Amino acid sequence: MATSNERTFFVESYVSNLDEAAAATLSARLRTAVDELRQEGCALEWLRSFAFIDEETFVWMLTADDSDSVVLVNERAGVSCDHVVEAFPGG
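Structure (tokenized):
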């Protein structure tokens, strides 16, 4: 559900002992949280996730109206959130 306030966010979390299985679990938990919050009326859209295994860093992207919604997704999923930045398209 796109809105006029829709913005793209890049979210980064440090995850000790990150591996492929842990990254898949984090993605599933975050996607579930996004789906639940959408059903509750939040304007959210999952975009993608990826992991930097050697750096123990998990990254995911979504669209939302504001950064508070992004933090809410992380809280709902039980995932720590170290950095949230708004992503802007390049030219």
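The beta strands are 7-14, 45-52, 57-64, 83-87. The helical segments are 20-39, 67-77.
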